[in-house]
Design goal:
Elements: E1 10-16, E2 23-24, E3 29-34, E4 39-43, E5 48-53, E6 60-62, E7 68-71, H1 79-123, E8 124-125, E9 128-129, H2 133-142, H3 160-172, E10 179-184, E11 188-194, E12 201-205, H4 219-223, E13 227-231, H5 248-262, E14 269-274, H6 276-287, E15 292-298, H7 309-316, H8 321-328, H9 340-350, E16 351-352, E17 355-356, H10 361-366, E18 371-376, E19 396-401, H11 408-411, H12 413-425
Parallel strand pairs: 12-13, 12-14, 14-15, 15-18, 18-19
Antiparallel strand pairs: 1-3, 1-6, 2-5, 3-4, 5-7, 8-9, 10-11, 11-13, 16-17
Helix pairs in contact: 2-3, 5-6
Length: about 425
């Protein structure tokens, strides 16, 4: 059972598209799954024959549960062997979960130990915490551990103000749980953050007409190993939509300001950018190469002049169910279309008369950071031939998705996640 969205715990099997004994090709839809927010198809991870289906139609199963067993043609498995296979799969997943949990707890303990080693000395005497009676009472009320509070009073004594400051810092401390927040960058920027706070940091930048929800099929997988942040660009989603410069260079500077606002932990990151977001990520990497660990460009703008004129015409048209339906066949439109003025301004700043206004091919060629370019062969928005520009950089890698359009991270989410995770881990 896949995990679509950070809050997804279970999924409902709506319909099996294959039955035991049926042949199936890798990437072919095998089952329809319904979550609280959407209904999607799960693709077969391998070519072979369906041997076993684990969840009847109309029933729920937890995320990670085995849905089916596929065998290679000619392979014979008894029912007992199938049962052993399912138990083995469940045990591997359990051990992986325990390993990740253990790593996070160890990192948290190490961080706490470092903090205590730093702050205990000035506020402790002979093993006893040096705190005023008022500070002790307040710490008990607020649940603050005095052993990790730095005292600023005479002789390092902890006072009420020290306890209050520690309580506020604890509130502001990042959490592994997914949380949406608004960040002030000269205007509200909406973002979603999740994952281990001590893990490498990865930023996701959506494309034109999109929002952070563009990545809903990807973020859960990445949040297991990375500290992630998916943002709504200025002018999109739930972020502010001012009358401002929406050009790619301006959006790259906006991204720099946003990361600065997130704090020192976000000064060096890996970036995954789709379409226009890929151009923004590439422009950012060109201006701030020292801040980029790795770069993933997904059907990216900025690598050639051509772009589908139909998409640009639809963006300038009045929003309507029919226009959205037509655009979905090209571009996967999202809630950003509600703010038509900001969407049009962004499109006009990046594209004109069926041509891209920004050319970042030389920027890509100069980069010394590892770059993964992923592209759908059947992209109807930006030609897949643009992906060949990655050959101009010595640190680049190209991966193409057959039978896939402009959004491989949506159309081939599982394969995209595995590919990109492997690349980011290095």
């Amino acid at each position: 059972m896949p995990k679509w969205g950070l809050a997804m715990k279970t999924g409902l099997v709506v319909e099996w598209l294959k039955r035991p004994g049926d042949s199936v090709q890798e990437g072919e839809p095998i089952v329809q799954i319904e979550s609280e927010k959407a209904t999607n198809e799960v693709e077969a991870p391998a070519t072979g024959l369906v041997r076993w289906l684990g969840v009847p139609e109309g029933e729920d199963a937890p995320v990670g549960a085995a849905l089916a067993v596929i065998v290679v043609p000619g392979e014979e498995l008894t029912d007992e062997q199938v049962a052993d296979l399912i138990r083995e799969d469940a045990e591997i997943k359990r051990q992986k979960a325990e390993m990740l949990t253990g790593q996070r707890k160890t990192a948290a303990r190490e961080t706490a130990s470092e903090t205590r080693a730093t702050v205990r000395a000035p506020s402790s005497t002979g093993g006893r915490v040096n705190a005023s009676p008022a500070a002790r009472r307040l710490a008990q009320e607020l649940g603050v551990d005095l052993t990790i509070v730095a005292g600023t009073g005479p002789g390092g004594m902890i006072g009420r103000e020290d306890v209050l400051r520690a309580a506020e810092e604890a509130k502001a401390a990042p959490s592994e749980e997914a949380e949406e927040r608004d960040v002030d960058v000269g205007g509200t920027v909406h973002c979603l953050m999740a994952g281990p706070v001590n893990a490498p940091h990865v930023v996701f930048v959506h494309g034109l007409g999109g929002s952070l929800t563009t990545w809903s099929l990807n973020l859960p997988a990445f949040a297991e190993q990375f500290r992630i942040c998916a943002l709504d660009l200025v002018g999109a989603g739930s972020s502010a939509k001012p009358a401002t410069d929406y050009s790619v260079p301006a959006l790259a500077e906006f991204l720099a300001s946003f990361l600065d606002a997130l704090g020192p932990d976000w000064q060096r990151v890996s970036i995954v950018g789709h379409s226009l977001g890929g151009a923004v990520a590439l422009a950012f990497a060109g201006s701030y190469p020292q801040r980029v660990e790795r770069l993933v460009l997904v059907d990216s703008a900025g690598l050639g002049p051509e772009i589908d004129r139909t998409v640009l015409e639809l963006i300038h048209s009045e929003p309507s169910p029919e226009n959205v339906r037509v655009e979905l066949t090209h571009f996967f439109a999202h809630t950003g279309m509600i703010q038509q003025e900001a969407l049009v301004a962004t499109a006009d700043a990046a594209f004109d008369d069926g041509k891209q206004l920004v050319d970042l091919r030389d920027t890509l060629a100069r980069l010394n950071v590892p770059v993964l370019v992923a592209w759908g062969v059947a992209d109807a928005v930006i030609p897949a031939t643009h992906a060949q520009e990655v050959e101009r950089t010595s640190s680049g890698r190209l991966e193409v998705f057959a039978d896939c359009g402009h959004c491989p991270h949506i159309e081939r989410a599982d394969a995209f996640n595995q590919l990109t995770l492997t690349f980011l881990v290095g």
